[in-house]
């Protein structure tokens, strides 16, 4: 199974939407998301900026404060996260993770339902992203504390999380881009740990999930 981590901001946005009882259908293509007839809401960004004609940009704080009807269907398309989700389509199961639900994910995954878990940091347009490595490390560290055995690479990522300060993540290139676009509130929300204890699972083409008590 695969955990897709796009900390700034797709995985965080999906966690918020799922916590509000929405179904989130990911699309790599803006055009497909726009034309998806079953969507009650359309959320999208390119280059971190809101897609014209969509209801929201990929802003978890805007969505947190918005009226999202229970059981509504949301079409979501983002620069990196939804593309990686589509690329992972052959996996037995696909979850999304970030700082906001790292503990809930670790609790769920430590239940033993999956023999092997792959945590994938999305990065930015094919390049590594320090916020995705750090959030992946947060998930892996919590898994290890629950008895999971990490391979060498995963162990290094977990150790990197423990040694990386939030201050450095607030000043990386992705953070600077969000600040330029006026999304500094999103930045702080995305860096908060274990604030949205949900496990978004891709079921029938849509992410769904309930709140976990941890």
Q: What are the SSEs and their pairings?
A:
Layout: E1 2-5, H1 10-19, E2 23-26, H2 30-35, E3 41-46, E4 49-50, H3 60-65, E5 73-77, H4 81-87, E6 94-97, H5 102-109, E7 118-121, H6 130-145, H7 152-163, H8 166-169, H9 173-180, H10 184-191, E8 201-203, E9 206-208
Parallel strand pairs: 1-6, 1-7, 2-5, 3-5
Antiparallel strand pairs: 3-4, 8-9
Helix pairs in contact: 5-6, 6-7
What is the domain total for the residues? Answer: 1
Question: Radius of gyration, rounded?
Answer: 16 Å
* Order of the strands making up the biggest sheet: 2-5-3-4
Percentage of residues assigned to helices? 25-40%
Question: Which strand-content bin applies to the residues?
Answer: 15-25%
Could you state the oligomeric state of the chains shown?
single chain
Which CATH class is shown? Alpha Beta
In the CATH classification, which architecture applies?
Alpha-Beta Complex
- C-alpha termini separation: 22 Å
- Describe the sheet with the most strands: 4 strands, mixed
Outline: globular
- How many alpha or pi helices? 10
Residue ranges: pLDDT <50 for 5 or more in a row?
A: none
Give helix and strand order, one letter per element, not per position: EHEHEEHEHEHEHHHHHEE
Total strand segments: 9
Within CATH, the superfamily carries the name ComB-like
């Amino acid at each position: 199974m695969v955990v897709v981590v796009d900390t700034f901001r797709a995985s965080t946005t999906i966690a918020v939407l799922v916590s509000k009882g929405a179904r989130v259908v990911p699309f790599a293509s803006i055009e497909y998301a726009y034309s998806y007839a079953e969507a009650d809401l359309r959320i999208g960004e390119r280059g971190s900026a809101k897609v014209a004609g969509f209801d929201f940009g990929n802003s978890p704080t805007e969505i947190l404060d918005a009226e999202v009807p229970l059981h509504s269907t949301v079409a979501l398309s983002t620069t990196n996260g939804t593309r990686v989700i589509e690329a992972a389509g052959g996996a037995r199961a696909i979850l999304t993770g970030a700082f906001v639900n790292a503990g809930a994910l670790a609790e769920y995954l430590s239940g033993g339902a999956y023999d092997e878990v792959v945590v994938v940091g999305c990065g930015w347009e094919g390049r590594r992203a320090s916020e995705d490595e750090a959030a992946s490390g947060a998930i892996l560290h919590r898994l290890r504390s629950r008895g999971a055995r990490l391979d060498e690479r995963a162990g290094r990522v977990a150790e990197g999380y423990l040694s990386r300060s939030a201050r450095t993540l607030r000043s990386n290139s992705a953070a600077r881009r969000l600040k330029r676009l006026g999304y500094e509130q999103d930045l702080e929300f995305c860096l908060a740990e274990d604030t949205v204890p949900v496990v978004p699972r891709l079921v029938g083409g849509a992410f769904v999930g309930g709140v976990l008590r941890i």
